[in-house]
Design goal:
heterodimer; A: mainly alpha; 7 helices; 2 strands; 6% strand; rod-shaped; B: mainly alpha; 2 helices; 90% helix; 0% strand
Chain lengths: 220, 84
């Protein structure tokens, strides 16, 4: 596998890890809220089953932050490796702005997450077909995002081949970039920017994941 | 008693949201792991290899902690059935 392909795949993996970090950090917050609500509701209750439930949730609460820390460690390891493979390309840049959705936002956006996963799959499977012109790549990817967001089937555009991809119970047309050579550093940078945009689109505006992992590491 | 039940139900809703988030996170990681393994095939860099290990542990952790949240929610159901 060409170096450019390896780098592109690792960049896409980092995008998935960062989305998972946001989701897991959100789970940690929800678990904390659940525990607080249960403790409040059961204040003064002296019952074995209630105590067992609280104990289980306390273990889950602390464990979720452990999970976030594991994901952050994986992301940092890949960032370092990418910096070795492709120094100065931006592929190995640290992500100080990992976003995280609120619980309500997460549930409302469950459909959007499915669509984003489909986009991620397509990016990873087509990593060896990235267009050799960065402008064309950008236009194609923007088109993909727009099509994924559309409720109706829009007419196909661009020069690429149009196929149908099932997302949930619907079929969406997506555009496949024509086969081209492996990406260079400029295209890798585009993928980095795309990953950032997709992550931001999915996980929204909240930024507690990094804080959660930092807390965990400081407590360690 | 109604107040206790309502409070526990609200807590269970939060726990359910946490489980949903953990499952979504696990799905993201599961989807990325084969790509990572392909990209790192033959890689000798210890940091790169450690990323695979960290992700594997993260998947296990997601499953374990979602299970804890479900089990805890089940205990509260049993409690409410007992005291009702």
């Amino acid at each position: 596998m060409a170096l450019g392909e390896v780098v592109a795949q690792l960049v896409s993996v980092r995008g998935a890890i960062q989305t998972a970090i946001g989701l897991t950090a959100n789970a940690a917050d929800e678990a904390t809220a659940a525990l607080a609500e249960a403790e409040d509701a059961l204040a003064g209750a002296n019952h074995g089953l209630a105590g067992d439930g609280l104990d289980l949730w306390r273990r889950a609460q602390s464990g979720n932050e452990f999970t976030v820390a594991k994901l952050v460690a994986a992301d940092e390891a890949l960032a370092e490796y990418l910096e070795i493979l492709s120094p100065g390309s931006g592929a190995g840049s640290r992500n100080a702005d990992i976003a995280k959705p609120s619980g309500e936002e997460l549930l409302k956006r469950s459909k959007e997450q499915v669509e984003q996963k489909s986009l991620f799959s397509m990016i990873t499977t087509k990593a060896d077909q990235v267009d050799d012109a960065s402008k064309t790549l950008g236009k194609d990817l923007v088109s993909l995002v727009n099509i994924e967001k559309a409720d109706e089937l829009p007419p196909a555009t661009g020069s690429g081949e149009t196929i149908s991809v099932e997302v949930g119970h619907r079929h969406h047309p997506v555009i496949q970039a024509p086969p081209t050579p492996a990406p260079d550093a400029g295209q890798i940078l585009n993928l980095v920017l795309l990953g950032t945009a997709v992550g931001t689109k999915v996980v929204g505006k909240i930024k507690k994941a990094t804080a959660a992992s930092n807390r965990w590491r400081h407590d360690e | 008693m109604d107040e206790v039940r309502d409070g526990i139900r609200a807590a269970q809703d939060s726990a359910q949201a946490a489980v949903a988030a953990l499952e979504a996170a696990r799905g993201e990681i599961e989807q990325a792991r084969p790509v990572l393994m392909t990209a790192l095939k033959g890689a000798m860099n210890p940091r790169a290899v450690s990323a695979e290990v960290e992700l594997a542990q993260a998947v296990e952790a997601c499953e374990e902690f979602a299970g804890l949240l479900r089990d805890g929610s089940g205990k509260f159901d049993e409690y409410l059935a007992t005291v009702a």
